[in-house]
Structure formats: structure tokens, C-alpha cells
Write a structure and sequence with these properties.
heterodimer; A: 117 residues; alpha+beta; 3 helices; 26% helix; B: 576 residues; alpha/beta; 24 helices; 16 strands; globular
Chain lengths: 117, 576
């Protein structure tokens, strides 16, 4: 399972949404993105997913998590517990956290810090 | 022509045969409200959906608060996940979108969106994550329940005989389906002792439970439910159907039933045995009267109490209970106060059978308990009410309950509200602790009921919802015989009457054991009532009593069972 493709992600399918509903959030001029290796033993399981939503709700920025899967990127809305679960990011996998908004740096720092475990 | 007939094995939960078309139901509510709405109704439908989300949120918040204060606050994180799903755009926003773009009812939109999400769960590689679909199932079930307000139309009558096939159908749902041509039930979970099974029997709906795999059954499939053998026949061929149809006897006309059932039950050798009826719902009272039952030995009030998903207010409860008693006329009705916790496997995996249920729940939720007691005492002026306390496990618990009852009576006397003054009070013996100490409780109460289902489960350490051990459940176990013998001996010294009201009282060989050990009062489900009375009339009490010493010395359940069966002219049992 590789990390997200290099550079900015232009196209991704949204975890848990059937093909017709595939969309990707708007690409913002200003954004912060960082890769992180999931340190939680069970990966992004229910408790971790809930925690990410709760953490994300503290920030105003839009926050997404991307995982590379067989060449394509899957995007999860960090405020959607279901999409984080469907991202199915296991222990040791690499994800990219992207945020855009007034507090994007803090948001990415906070989420990455949590994902490291 | 031989078709692809296939038999699926389950366990017998409610006797009888049903032939009909399958209705696959994650929840039967799904099938009822899938309808298109007019464009003008969309805004109202969205508002209705949002209100159900908000109601879910409040309910979950309350549960979470309770969990945080409980002994296992760490389990409250499970509710976090539920609460977060309620605000998840993948779920909520898409349901709203579906209602708006497709002009469909909220229920249908919920089904479509949740089906997509369940597919997404199923595609996950990680088994642990796949299991999390239970979170969404819970939410969806709760949401559908909340959407079903009193103003929503009730389930329409099906145009065919329907057999509901699902993983778990709650007893209250089965009850709601009773008048819509549902003739059978197939469940993946459950056992003969689950509450849904009890419900199915009281509604006389044949049911098979604990079926390994129902995935091969689709809505519309013709299936046969053989509740007496515990099997489901899929795609039955014509011979099979013909054979089953010949077994399905037309039901007895109510008047004939009353004739057989309303005369007193006297054994062949002239001994009077009291037979009362168990009911789960107030509506069954009419059938009690029509059947000429001499009394209601057990009215399990929790189903009516929680029928609308919330706790009712005292006035409406008092009115309901008064109606029950007026319908009963002179027939005494034993109201068992709410016993919650049973059958509802809580989502944090705690087995409620060993936790806060029955009287324990009432002592922890005193306001709820007082509401019910006040309603009961107020209604008691309309007939012959008796109050029975469930799951009593110590004299301390009993005394705590009696104190609350005394306080309720004092309040009612002061407020000068009309209420019954001489309401007999009883204790349910269904824990080993109560069986061992019933004589210590006797001076405090007027009567006892012996709940054999729970007693056996606790004595033999068998979780009756656990399919892997349910076959070990055996009322003929020497431990049970000794326990019953002891309870009867202890209570005879006190002079307080006892009625046996579990499943044991509705099985011929078990009844023979009970009579042999000295019990003379039984209470059985309404469906079994005429049959049991008829059967006991053919028994010889003297002969059965003579067996007591012999069966109490036996080492194996099978010996006991076969001995009593022989004494009442039955073949040895097929049970190993």
C-alpha cells in the first residue's frame, strides 16, 4: 500500500460514496498538506475515527484525509465518521492530511499528531 | 416435477405451520412506508426526517449520560460513534438529497442511503471495520422507530400471506404486524425462550428462530415455516405444500374453545388444578375473557409500557390498566411490574440477564417504578388487580420495593385519589437466590409466582439467547427438580400460594413433573390454554404424586422425562 501520489491530489474518489456520487472537494489556492503514517494498532477504527471527527470539529478549515489505493486516491472528509471508516486506513499505512482555511496549519498539525498514535 | 426444494434448519420457537411469501426485513418498517410523495410534501418530509434525527440525538445523549455515570463509562465512546453518524454528511445530507430529488418518503430514503453504506461496509477488507455496520444498523432502526409516530398510518394489510424473515424482529414489531396478514416468522437470532418467541406464541404465529443463514431467502419467495419441527422449507414442491396444508387444521371457533376452556380443570381422579393465562398485551384481555380463563397469572407489562418507545405518563397508564381490569370483569389480573433488560442484548456487550433487570432496574429508576405503581393502584379500584415483582434476588431488594409501594399508597391516600386498597402483592421466584430464600420473603407478601424460564437459565448457567448452549436447557435436569421440590416444600410451610408460570407449565411432560412435585396452580400462554386444560383433565394426580420420590432420585434428565412421559401415556422423548 503506497502513499498518495506525489504532488497535489487532483482527483480522488470519496470513500463510501457509490460511483455516481463521486466528487472531490474544491481545490483551494491556499492549503496545507502533510503525509503521516498511521500509528494506531487497529488503524482508523471506530474510536479513532470518532476522535478525528471530534478534533476536526474544533477547526474552521475544511479537512480531508487521502489514502492511495491501487493507483487512485480515496478521500475522506475528516468530519464524516463514515467516510473515515470507509477509508480503511490500517496500521502502518500512509495517508495525507489536507486542510484549507484560516486555521489550516493548526488543523493539520493536530490531526497528524493524533494519527501518529 | 421436483423443484429445488431446500430445507433450512433452525429451532422451534412457536408451533404450527405457515405457508406464505417471504418478506425480507432488516426491519419490517421498511416495507411499510416506501412510498413516493408529492413535490409539495418534500419540505414537510425533510422536516419530519430532521425531527427524527434530532429525536435520535436526544435519546442517544441520554443513553450516553447514563453510560458515563455507570460502572463502565469507557463504553460511552460507542455512543460517540452513533452520535457522529447522526451528523455525518454521507448519511444525513444524502438522505435529505434523496427525499428532495426523488420525492420519496424519509423511510425509503433512509433505506436507500443506508443500503449503499452497508454495501460500502461489506466491501471493506478489514473484518473489524466490517463489523461496525452494526452502528449504522442501530441508528437506522432507531430512526425508523422514531419516524413511526402515532399519526403515521399503520402497516397496511398485505395482499398475501406474509412470512417475515429477518435477523432480529423485536417483539413489539411482531405485535404490530399481527393484523397485517403476517402468518409466520423466521429469525436468524433468538431461541424458543426469547421474548419474540413468547410473543409469536401468544399471537399464535408459527416461528422458527436461530436459523443459520437466511441470505438465500428473497422477498416474494414461497416458503413454509414448520414451527413444530423448527425448519423452513424454501421453494417447496407441490407435494410438500399439499402435505403441509393437510396438517393445517382450521382454528377452533372461539365459542367452542370457551366451552372447553371455561369449565374448571379437574384431573381424572378429581383434583382441582388452577390454570391461568399469561398475556403480554392489554389487547389480549378480550381473548382471555372469550376463552373463559379463570385468571391472568402473568401480565408482562413492559411491552405495553414501552410500546411507544418512551415511558408513558401516569394518567394514560392508569386508564390502560383500568380498561384491562374492566374488560377482565371478575377475572383477577396479575400485573408483573416492568422487567426490562431481558432479550435486549445491550450494545456494549453486557449480558443484561446478569445485570440491572427486573426489580433492580425499578429500584434504580424509582420515578418510573412509582409511575407504574401509582397507575396500578389507581386502576385497582376497577377490578381484581394483583401486583407481582419480577427478578427479586434478596430480602433487601424486596424491602426496598415494599417501602416504595408503601410510600405510593400513602401519597394516594393523602391525595384522596380513588385507588384499590387491598391489592395482593407477590414475588416472582426466578433467581436461585429467591428460590433458596422464598420462605424468608413469605411473611412480607401474599403470593408467589415461579418463573421457570429464568430459573432454569440461571440454575443451569445457560444464556437462553446463546445458540451454542440452548440445547442444554432442560427442565428435567435433577438440579431443577430438586430446586422445584425445595421451593414447594418451603412455601407449603408458609401457607402462601404459588403459581408456576414459565414454559414448563405449557409442556405436557413438564406439567406432569410439576404436579408430581406438588404444584397445583399453573399459568400458560393464551395459545396453549385450552390444550393444557384439556390435557390435565386426563392426568391422574394420585399416580403422578406417587412418582415424586422416584424422579427426585434420578440422575439424568432423560430418565426423568421418559418416566413421566410413560406415566401420562406418551412415547419416550426424541431428545438424547
Amino acid at each position: 500500500m503506497g502513499g498518495p501520489s506525489d504532488g497535489q491530489i487532483k482527483e480522488a474518489r470519496v470513500a463510501g460514496v457509490p460511483p455516481a456520487g463521486r466528487t472531490v472537494g474544491p481545490t483551494f489556492k491556499h492549503m496545507t498538506e502533510r503525509q503521516v503514517v498511521i500509528g494506531h494498532r487497529l488503524g482508523l477504527h471506530a474510536r479513532a475515527a470518532a476522535k478525528i471527527v471530534q478534533l476536526s470539529n474544533r477547526y474552521q478549515s475544511n479537512i480531508s484525509i487521502f489514502r492511495n489505493d491501487r493507483g487512485g486516491d480515496i478521500e475522506a472528509d475528516a468530519r464524516s465518521i463514515l467516510s473515515i471508516l470507509f477509508l480503511a486506513a490500517g496500521h502502518g499505512s500512509t495517508v495525507a492530511v489536507r486542510a484549507s482555511g484560516v486555521d489550516e496549519h493548526e488543523a493539520v498539525d493536530c490531526i497528524c499528531e493524533y494519527l501518529k498514535g | 416435477m421436483k423443484t429445488s426444494e431446500r430445507i433450512i434448519q433452525g429451532v422451534m420457537a412457536s408451533a404450527g405451520v405457515a405457508i406464505g411469501h417471504a418478506i425480507r426485513a432488516f426491519d419490517p418498517l421498511f416495507i411499510s412506508f416506501n412510498r413516493e410523495i408529492g413535490a409539495g410534501e418534500v419540505a414537510r418530509e425533510v422536516a419530519r426526517f430532521r425531527a427524527s434525527v434530532e429525536k435520535c440525538r436526544q435519546q442517544l445523549q441520554r443513553i450516553q449520560n447514563k453510560l458515563r455515570r455507570s460502572s463502565s463509562p469507557e463504553s460511552s465512546f460507542l455512543v460517540d460513534a452513533h452520535l457522529l453518524i447522526l451528523q455525518d454528511r454521507l448519511f444525513v445530507d444524502r438522505i435529505v438529497e434523496k427525499i428532495e430529488t426523488d420525492s420519496i418518503s424519509a423511510e425509503w430514503a433512509i433505506q436507500q442511503v443506508s443500503d449503499e453504506l452497508f454495501d460500502a461496509y461489506d466491501r471493506l477488507q478489514d473484518e473489524y471495520l466490517r463489523e461496525r455496520r452494526g452502528d449504522l444498523e442501530d441508528i437506522v432502526r432507531r430512526m425508523l422507530h422514531n419516524l413511526r409516530s402515532k399519526s403515521t398510518p399503520s402497516l397496511p394489510k398485505l395482499p398475501f400471506d406474509g412470512i417475515v424473515v429477518g435477523k432480529t424482529i423485536p417483539p413489539s414489531t411482531l405485535f404490530e404486524l399481527r393484523s397485517s396478514h403476517v402468518v409466520g416468522l423466521v429469525m436468524e437470532t433468538g431461541s424458543p425462550l426469547s421474548h419474540t418467541a413468547i410473543m409469536a406464541r401468544s399471537l399464535e404465529i408459527p416461528a422458527v428462530m436461530g436459523v443459520d443463514d437466511i441470505s438465500g431467502i428473497s422477498t416474494g419467495d414461497l416458503i413454509v415455516v414448520d414451527g413444530s419441527r423448527g425448519i423452513v422449507v424454501c421453494s417447496p414442491d407441490e407435494d410438500t405444500i399439499r402435505e403441509y396444508r393437510s396438517q393445517m387444521k382450521p382454528p377452533l371457533k372461539p365459542r367452542r374453545r370457551a366451552g372447553a376452556a371455561s369449565t374448571p380443570c379437574v384431573t381424572e381422579d378429581g383434583a382441582r388444578i388452577s390454570v391461568s393465562a399469561n398475556i403480554n398485551f392489554s389487547e389480549e384481555m378480550r381473548a382471555v375473557v372469550a376463552n373463559g380463563c379463570e385468571s391472568v397469572g402473568l401480565y408482562r407489562t413492559e411491552f405495553d409500557f414501552f410500546r411507544d418507545g418512551a415511558s408513558p405518563d401516569e394518567d394514560s397508564l392508569a386508564a390502560d390498566y383500568a380498561l384491562v381490569l374492566r374488560t377482565a370483569r371478575n377475572v383477577p389480573v396479575t400485573f408483573r411490574t416492568i422487567d426490562v433488560g431481558i432479550d435486549q442484548k445491550s450494545w456494549d456487550g453486557v449480558n443484561p440477564n446478569f445485570g440491572v433487570r427486573g426489580l433492580r432496574f425499578c429500584l434504580e429508576n424509582q420515578e418510573l417504578f412509582k409511575t407504574q405503581l401509582r397507575a396500578l393502584f389507581r386502576a385497582a379500584s376497577h377490578g381484581r388487580a394483583r401486583i407481582l415483582l419480577p427478578f427479586v434476588s434478596s430480602v433487601d431488594d424486596l424491602d426496598a420495593a415494599l417501602e416504595i409501594i408503601a410510600a405510593v399508597k400513602r401519597d394516594l391516600a393523602q391525595s384522596k385519589a380513588p385507588h384499590g386498597r387491598n391489592v395482593p402483592l407477590g414475588v416472582m421466584i426466578e433467581t436461585p437466590a429467591a428460590a433458596q430464600t422464598c420462605d424468608l420473603m413469605a411473611s412480607r407478601v401474599d403470593f408467589f409466582c415461579l418463573g421457570t424460564n429464568d430459573l432454569i437459565q440461571y440454575y443451569l448457567v445457560i444464556d437462553r439467547s446463546d445458540q451454542s448452549v440452548v440445547h442444554l436447557y432442560n427442565p428435567f435436569h435433577p438440579a431443577i427438580l430438586r430446586c422445584l421440590h425445595q421451593v414447594n416444600a418451603l412455601l407449603q410451610l408458609t401457607g402462601k400460594p404459588v403459581t408456576v408460570c414459565g414454559e414448563m407449565a405449557a409442556d405436557s411432560a413438564s406439567v406432569a413433573v410439576l404436579l408430581s412435585l406438588g404444584f397445583t396452580s399453573l399459568s400458560v400462554s393464551l395459545a396453549a390454554y385450552p390444550r393444557m386444560k384439556q390435557m390435565i383433565r386426563s392426568f391422574n394426580l394420585g399416580k403422578l404424586r406417587g412418582l415424586a420420590d422416584e424422579i427426585l432420585k434420578m440422575q439424568k434428565p432423560k430418565e426423568v422425562e421418559d418416566t413421566v412421559r410413560a406415566s401420562i401415556g406418551m412415547e419416550p422423548s426424541a431428545r438424547p
